[in-house]
């Protein structure tokens, strides 16, 4: 078995590197002097890093395609505040000689156990109409299997195999904690749970995720908000007697769950359930995204690199009470 070598998160400016990566992107470009060079996006389970190959680029990448496993030799450099690899040599490797689990980011939690827990939340839905709707959607060919495997994002949060299931389950757990505090306000628990289960279901079509995560044409052109709402609406049309008001409010929750027009929601949340779903979704996404950046920061650094996503540096120190 070929050793993995350094992970992306272990790379430091000036490091000499010999490591195994997945090729997420591979492009042959032309420099200003007319010389061809290659731009590579190199991925492992810890993240990705851009590599530039300047010497014999056309020849070295002639048999390399997106999704291939490669060995890379080069030097880690810092450019414009970001690390990259000046690639000296890249070579396609036999997949049977590499541990693919070191290359494909996957949830650290047990997927079958999470799936079983998700089923308990579905079983707790008392509304006959909503329970039938959930069963109808997840009974469609390939939906449940894809839902268990899909990421919740390409970057930012839960961007790994099993991330969608993990994110959805976290929101359902938050509902269990929050609902008793606001039950007196008349919030419909079943509607809130159904919205949590379905708000991101369209991500199974928004992303491709066999080896590395990328957006599909459907994801780029349509997006998961519409896809999720459409999946729910199509399933509702197959259920005789599904109440119009219930359909209206559920679809509104899905369409409004990003909370702001500039964040992709075609509607602002206008019901208590829609507002609460948005806030719990945002909470889980943000705290997980924050944590992933902090965890990827070297222990000796007090602050992370500047995050363009959150428009700030993140402080990495954890206060612990002394004995």
Automatic annotation (TrEMBL):
Give the Enzyme Commission number: 3.1.-.-
**GO terms for molecular function, please?**
hydrolase activity; nucleic acid binding
Organism phylogeny: unclassified sequences, metagenomes, ecological metagenomes
Signal sequence, start to end: none
What name is this protein filed under?
3'-5' exoribonuclease YhaM
Database matches in Gene3D superfamilies: Hypothetical protein af1432, Nucleic acid-binding proteins
Coiled-coil annotation reads none
Pfam families under this entry?
A: HD, tRNA_anti-codon
